[in-house]
Amino acid sequence: MPEIKKYTIAEPYLNLQGGLLEAPFWEKSRDSLRFVDIVKRKLYFLRPQEGPSSLQTRDLDFNIGTTADIEGTEKEFVFGGKYGYGIMNRETGESRWIRKFWHDEERKPDGGGKPGKGETREIRMRSNDGAVDAAGRFFVGAMNDPVVTETFTDEGILFRLDPDGSLHRMKEGITIPNGISWTLDNQSVYFTNSPTQKIMKYPYDLPTGTIGWEQGEIFFQCPYEGGFPDGHAQDEEGCFWIALFGTGKVVRVNPQGEIIAEIEFPTRCVTCPGFAGTELFVTSAAEEEPEHYAWSTKCQGSLYRIDVGVRGAPLNRYRNQGGA
């Protein structure tokens, strides 16, 4: 077993006491970090070089789970939101839906959810994590919206939005679709269904965007009781920094699936890491069991920052060839 490098973070960089902070994304050309609070429906922008006082907050009419840059423009970005894929103007906050997830039948009451709440699939679902492949396709996972359903079922789906605007259902029967990324040679894709406690590795065909679901193998399994892999970020050395929800840890895992570094946080529910240069920004959620883990509530729903001495792998941009 390799030696494990240890880090400890004592305090948040920004203590926001948020609901579910997620999706830290470095806007490199602006030297700005954007991230979201899914539960409280907020979008944040931060300039790390200027410090916490540079934080800007935008209230949203719907929740956003994940975002990505668009090739050829710095004014807009693409997102996976409550109802599907959309594009937002970074300066004005104006947004438009470019492809909804659900067809007409899924917008009708179907007996699911709670009476009077979440009676259609469209209402009881939302976007979660996502990423763009090297061909400019944007993969986004949809899951039950716990604000509506209070429970999780296996009606989640992994979607793929192609550059021409076409929408594809890549995999169904998922509970909480989470971190997705590709090997540096684009021959394999990593995908997380959090309740399984595993990150799986599958063959990937970049020219067609297809995944060899039947040839999957376990890449990483959370070794900590009660912990679940949430979001992850890949570094330039091909290693993964994985948020382990419920453990207060982010671990660095080498390409062989072995833990080689570990960051300890003062809150349990860490959700997603993202790189800005050699600095790793990590989001967290509100403590789910405050009656049992009171210590975790002081720094819950916060943003953390640590220099880990390695740069993140370049992030792909969505290719909006359809002109949406």
TrEMBL record:
Its cofactor is Zn(2+). Gene3D superfamilies: TolB, C-terminal domain. Substrate binds at R126, N128. A divalent metal cation binds at E22, N178, D230. This is SMP-30/Gluconolactonase/LRE-like region domain-containing protein. Coiled coil: none annotated. The active site is at D230. Residues 22-285 form the SMP-30/Gluconolactonase/LRE-like region domain. One of its GO terms (molecular function) is gluconolactonase activity. Binds 1 divalent metal cation per subunit. Keywords: Metal-binding, Zinc.
